[in-house]
Specification:
CATH superfamily of the largest domain in chain A: P-loop containing nucleotide triphosphate hydrolases
Distance between the termini of chain B: 16 Å
Keywords (chain B): Kinase, Phosphoprotein, Phosphotransferase system, Sugar transport, Transferase, Transport
Number of domains of chain B: 1
Protein name (chain B): PTS sugar transporter subunit IIB
GO molecular function, one term (chain B): kinase activity
Number of strands of chain A: 22
CATH architecture of chain B: 3-Layer(aba) Sandwich
Strand order of the largest sheet of chain A: 5-6-9-4-10
Oligomer: heterodimer
Number of domains of chain A: 7
Helix content of chain A: 40-55%
Number of strands of chain B: 4
Structural class of chain B: alpha/beta
Organism (chain B): Paratissierella segnis
Radius of gyration of chain B: 12 Å
InterPro entries (chain B): PTS_EIIB-like_sf, PTS_EIIB_2/3, PTS_EIIB_3, PTS_sugar-specific_EIIB
Strand content of chain A: 5-15%
CATH class of the largest domain in chain A: Alpha Beta
Shape of chain B: globular
Chain lengths: 897, 103
């Protein structure tokens, strides 16, 4: 005899004595097998519909005598009735439940009901519970039948389907060789649950409606006799209630109840569902099931289109996997980890940010692992973190480890679990502390020696790791060190489960933490263990502290002026008025060489820059050019304001101190300050450079002057042996001149200024290049002359220079060649386009823009990128529509094949 | 009465030139109907035109437009780029009239 049959037989034996049912323990005693094994067999029997089980502690089982129909003979022992036990009874199901109750008790015979809802929302369960409720309130007898029939089962045999429900008279159709009672008759004085009712044939529908309206029906083939029954129909369907079919149904069936989909239910409801399913599995397996927090979150949040049914089977699958690991002795206890849950479920964790607050509220944000057991209820919240954040961090970890050990987990698993949220906990711990304590108060809790040490550490950290730390880390680290030093002194153990992770991922911080540890050891005469060094590294590594800075760094201001004390006395006044040492003064005694002052200024800029730019306020002379040069050399945005006054410095410093952006500060100065009126038109020059400025450069000059005749282009010769690099000087010159080309024996490349090597210029090809440059310059000059009065919003002087670079840049990048006259046309097109855009006019739409963009995506990308300069310089949005026109002009006019 | 049509890309840059040409025509006492259109509108706008001038940036259309228009006796050419760049209405008007009378 198979064991399962033995269990069944024992149950039948015991049932005679215990009319209320038999528990697993009773059977296990009889068979001398452990209870969980028996539970498993009982569950199998239950699944096979051989026995029934009754809720309660302990769970009692009863055999089912009649196997053909499944009457629910369970007697509910609970105070609250069946419907109210459904998850979400007080929330999303409250209205459906009210309606269901009304349908059951509606006099005299209740109302037939149509249940609507997506696949898996729990329509069957709901129907069963309606039946249970009907018994609870004595509308139905305790032994009233509940018959379930799925219309889809016979969907491809319509006459058989109808016959199943209504019965058939012998000879009604081929194969009907005897009278057969239908389910409707079998369900008399009970409930007939017809699932997937939309599969019913029109004929079957009509018969059903006849019963609903008149209370009788005729079996197939029966012509004379009406059969009267008293059956409550509960029909269910997944169909859209607006479909034609369902409109008929909902018109004929008086009570329509729509059950919400899983996504319409609250997280709390979903949690209860998960909980009850896991507990069910626990009961099935006969063992407690642990589940880690992330897995619970995944189940709470994953996209579950097939609703509760899917949720349940996904949970069952996960439990089965975990059970496998447990059986294979991979785990000593049955725990569901992320690895056990299906991939699509795991993705639920990705939504955590969206629902973090709700989830934390639901899971109390306090425990790592949940335990569900068939015995214990409510679920044991295994590991509690103290809410009191001022509690010793180590104690929290230690308590966790202890409680996990008590529950029988081994060390590697404990680490795994602790890893789950140690980082977030750590950050929370630090973050909350800083909010709770003001700096003045910290001294009351942390000793001065520790505070001094922390200050020292933070200065070192800034130097070594090149990171600014804010107040929160100051607080956090102070608290942390106060306790850890105490702990080390007392010889208590420090344990860091993330140590290896930190070592690997935050190498720099870890090395730095080791240095710090030495410092601490020396100061306090202790020996910092490596686990503690790991914690220290976490302080310096945590992105958290950098990201959440409340205040953005500010723009820094430097005042540099001629004279021994001019700048510093002006700055002194300003800083006194602002109330903080905010502005930096650089004095330039008259004896100081500009080059030295430049270096001083540059170093100062680099030192104080905090990513938002520098405003350099100067009086006159060479100082006015420093800003540009420093930007070019260091990449730091430096804006210069010249001819400054104390009032100006005060105004700008105040704004910078309040966190204004550089443009916000700068614009009003240009407006109100005379020295920033629009530059007059710049002189066209060609630079000829050689080492001395007298040799080769002079030769070049002679040659070029001949070529350019009387045109308004001047040649400037320059030496390239100077303390300031020629590139910097040329940049400086760009403020005053429109530099057409650089001709030199040595390569000098500045921005997009064309460079011609001195050797080339004396050959034929070089002359042509030069001629081109000159002709181009003349062309643009002409455009400028003609446009200056006609562009409404655009400063034509600026745009011409930009256009020249822009068009040449595009030509180069696309590897195209465009005729000079065409280029002129394109230049004009762009001028007017930008002017139009600035005046708010729309460019007409490019035909088949998307199509064009996909064919010429490469060209569009290149042109779009080149236009970034214009976009920035003129603060104008240039859309793909505009870009497409320009790309087209380039493509169509390309003469280089 | 001359009917002069200018063509450019997206109708961006020719409208100013039209104004300048109209002024030049007025000064010279020449009756002229001068219009500017975008390249994409060309097909529907050539009715009754005496001369068609292209902006230098749409030079690529020249041969296409010529084969289209010259059988109808309408001369087509590209505007001199210096005149175009300098928005020289007088010179472009001269160019248009000489094209018409040269046919």
């Amino acid at each position: 005899m198979r064991m399962i049959d033995k269990v069944y037989n024992i149950l039948l034996d015991l049932e005679i004595k215990n009319k209320s049912g038999v528990s697993a323990i009773e059977i296990s005693k009889k068979l001398d097998l452990d209870r969980s094994t028996i539970s498993r067999y009982l569950n199998l029997l239950y699944k096979d519909k051989k026995i029934n089980k009754m809720d309660g502690r302990p769970v009692l089982y009863k055999s089912i005598k009649n196997n053909t129909v499944i009457p629910f003979t369970t007697k509910t022992s609970n105070i609250s009735n069946s419907l109210d036990k459904l998850a979400g009874a007080k929330q999303s199901l409250s209205i459906p439940i009210e309606k269901a109750k009304a349908a059951i008790i509606y006099p005299p015979k209740g109302l037939h009901t149509l249940l609507l809802g997506e696949t898996g929302v729990g329509k069957s369960l709901f129907a069963e519970q309606m039946y249970e409720y009907a018994k609870d309130v004595d509308v139905l007898d305790d032994n009233a039948p509940f018959i379930r029939f799925n219309c889809a089962d016979y969907a491809n045999n319509p006459s058989l389907l109808t016959a199943q429900i209504f019965g058939v008279k012998r000879g009604a159709f081929t194969g009907a060789d005897s009278d057969k009672e239908g389910l409707l008759k079998q369900a008399d004085n009970g409930v007939l649950f017809l699932d997937e009712i939309h599969r019913l044939t029109p004929e079957g529908q009509e018969m059903l409606f006849t019963y609903i309206d008149k209370g009788f029906f005729r079996p197939l083939g029966e012509t004379a006799k009406n059969i009267y029954v008293n059956v409550r129909i509960i029909a269910a369907t997944t169909e859209d209630p607006d479909s034609y079919l369902l409109q008929t149904f909902s018109r004929r069936i008086p009570m329509v109840i729509r059950l919400p989909s899983l996504s319409e239910r609250s997280l709390e409801e979903r949690y209860f569902l998960i909980e009850s399913f896991i507990r069910e599995e626990s009961r099935r397996i006969g063992k407690s099931i642990y589940i880690n927090r992330n897995s619970i979150i995944s189940f709470l949040l994953y996209d579950c289109p097939n609703n509760i049914g899917q949720l349940k089977s996904d949970i069952q699958l996960s439990c089965a996997k975990a059970f496998l690991n447990y059986k294979a002795n991979i785990n000593n206890y049955l725990i569901i980890n992320q690895g056990d849950i299906p991939n699509h479920v795991r993705k639920g964790l990705l939504y955590l940010n969206e629902y973090r607050n709700e989830v934390n509220e639901l899971l109390s944000s306090t425990y790592d692992v949940l335990k569900y057991s068939e015995i214990e209820e409510p679920p044991l919240r295994l590991i509690h973190e103290e809410e009191n954040i001022s509690e010793d961090f180590y104690n929290i970890i230690e308590n966790k480890i202890d409680s996990l050990k008590i529950s029988g987990m081994d060390e590697s698993d404990i680490n795994e679990i602790l890893n789950i949220d140690i980082e977030s906990h750590f950050q929370k711990y630090i973050g909350e502390i800083s909010e709770r304590y003001k700096k003045e108060e910290i001294n009351k809790v942390v000793s001065t020696s520790v505070l001094n040490l922390v200050e020292e550490i933070l200065i070192l950290a800034q130097k070594n790791l090149n990171i600014d730390y804010d107040e929160r880390i100051y607080f956090g680290l102070s608290f942390h060190l106060e306790r850890s030093i105490e702990r080390i002194k007392n010889g208590e153990k420090i344990y860091n489960p993330k140590l290896n992770f930190i070592r690997i991922n935050y190498e720099d911080e870890f090395i730095f933490a080791m240095k710090i540890a030495k410092l601490i050891d020396r100061k306090f005469g202790i020996e910092t263990p490596v686990d503690e060094i790991g914690y220290l590294a976490m302080f310096f590594s945590s992105e958290y502290f950098r990201d959440r800075k409340e205040e953005k760094p500010k723009i820094k201001i430097i005042v540099a002026m001629h004279g021994r004390t001019t700048a510093s006395s002006m700055v002194e006044v300003v800083n006194t008025l602002i109330g903080t040492e905010f502005v930096v003064a650089l004095d330039m005694p008259l004896s100081m060489k500009p080059q030295i002052m430049y270096e001083i200024t540059k170093n100062c800029v680099q030192e104080i820059h905090r990513g938002r730019g520098i405003i350099l306020m100067v009086d006159m002379g060479s100082l006015t050019n420093f800003g540009h040069m420093i930007t070019e050399e260091t990449g730091i945005e430096v804006r210069t304001v010249d001819m400054v006054s104390t009032l100006m410095v005060l105004d700008i410093a105040r704004k910078a101190f309040m966190g204004y952006a550089i443009d916000e500060i700068f614009d009003p100065i240009i407006m109100s300050h005379g020295s920033y009126v629009k530059n007059p038109r710049k002189e066209n020059v060609i630079l000829a450079a050689c080492f001395t400025g007298d040799g080769l450069a002079k030769g070049i000059e002679d040659l070029v002057v001949n070529r350019i005749n009387s045109k308004n282009i001047r040649i400037i010769t320059m030496n390239i042996v100077d303390e300031i690099k020629p590139e910097d000087r040329i940049l400086q010159m760009e403020n005053r001149y429109n530099i057409l080309a650089i001709i030199s024996a040595v390569d000098i490349h500045v921005g997009l200024i064309p460079f011609i090597s001195a050797i080339d210029i004396f050959s034929k090809g070089g002359e042509e290049i030069l001629d081109d440059i000159i002709a181009e310059s003349e062309m643009y000059d002409k455009i400028w002359d003609s446009l200056k009065d006609h562009l409404k919003y655009l400063n034509s002087d600026l745009i011409i220079k930009d256009l020249k670079y822009l068009l040449n840049g595009i030509e180069k990048k696309l590897n195209f060649r465009i005729g000079k006259d065409v280029k002129m046309g394109i230049a004009l097109h762009i001028c007017f386009m930008i002017d139009n855009l600035l005046s708010g006019e729309k460019t007409r739409e490019f035909e088949n823009l998307e199509n064009f963009k996909s064919i010429y995506s490469n060209e569009v990308n290149i042109v779009r990128k080149e236009f970034m300069i214009l976009k920035d310089n003129y603060e104008v949005e240039i859309s793909d529509n505009e870009i497409a026109y320009i790309v087209k002009l380039f493509i169509e006019n390309n003469i280089c094949v | 009465m001359y009917n002069i049509l200018l063509v450019c890309s997206a109708g961006m840059s020719t409208s100013l030139l039209v104004t300048k040409m109209q002024n030049a025509a007025k000064d010279k006492g020449i009756e002229a109907n001068i219009n500017a259109i975008a390249e994409s509108d060309l097909k529907n706008s050539t009715e009754g035109v005496d001369v068609l001038l292209l902006g230098p940036q749409v030079r690529y259309m020249l041969s296409k437009v010529r084969t289209l228009m010259e059988p109808k006796g309408v001369p087509v050419d590209v505007i001199n780029s210096v005149d175009y760049g300098t928005m020289n209405g007088t010179k472009v008007l001269d160019q248009a009239i000489s094209l018409i009378s040269g046919k």
